């Protein structure tokens, strides 16, 4: 399966606002957030959001590169390109995250001058942590913010060696 990363449209952004995940992943639901603020964040020029598409699915989810992938309260003093990924609720838990993330990292290597990638993931989200750890990310810190524990994972920004 080949993935495309295209600029997020307003229609797709509004769809993200309406996504509803099953517990405990409902933590990521944006339904209670101010839609104007969410749209402003999704279209922050310093932190581009990309729609994930395939030949079979027009909008599988989104990826982000930049400060919008950070969680206030974490230590982001070391230079790194912050990244994040969000799949449609019905697409989660099917093993697509690793495939999408592999291709997203490759596309970032071609366009961003980064030495390290960094992801911030809610502590309870072991599924996402396993995805990132499986691609060579390592836990570098933890912190509490807004009543939740967060894990920061980093990895060198290079293509993994074959084998």
Task: Give an overview of the whole structure.
- With 163 residues, this protein is α+β, with helices and mostly antiparallel strands.
- It has one domain: 3-Layer(aba) Sandwich (Aminopeptidase).
- 25% of the residues lie in helices and 28% in strands.
- A seven-stranded mixed beta sheet has the order 1-2-3-4-5-7-6, covered by helices on one side.
- A hairpin with a 2-residue loop joins strand 6 and strand 7.
- The mean pLDDT is 91.
Concise summary:
The protein has 163 residues and is α+β, with helices and mostly antiparallel strands. It is 25% helix and 28% strand.
What brief labels describe this structure?
7 strands, 25% helix, globular, 7-stranded mixed sheet, alpha+beta, 4 helices, Aminopeptidase, 163 residues
């Amino acid at each position: 399966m080949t993935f495309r990363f295209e600029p997020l449209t307003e229609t797709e952004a509004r769809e993200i606002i309406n996504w509803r995940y099953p517990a405990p992943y409902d933590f990521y639901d944006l339904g209670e957030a101010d839609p104007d603020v969410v749209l402003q964040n999704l279209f922050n020029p310093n932190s581009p959001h990309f729609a994930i598409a395939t030949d079979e699915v027009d909008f599988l989810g989104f990826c982000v590169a930049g400060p919008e992938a950070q969680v206030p309260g974490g230590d982001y003093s070391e230079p790194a390109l912050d990244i994040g990924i969000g799949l449609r609720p019905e697409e989660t838990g099917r093993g697509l995250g690793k495939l999408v993330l592999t291709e997203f990292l490759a596309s970032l290597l071609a366009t961003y001058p980064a030495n390290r990638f960094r992801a911030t993931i809610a502590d309870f989200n072991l599924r996402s942590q396993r995805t990132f750890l499986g691609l060579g990310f390592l836990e570098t810190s933890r912190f509490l913010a807004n009543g939740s524990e967060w894990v920061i994972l980093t990895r060198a920004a290079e293509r993994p060696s074959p084998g």
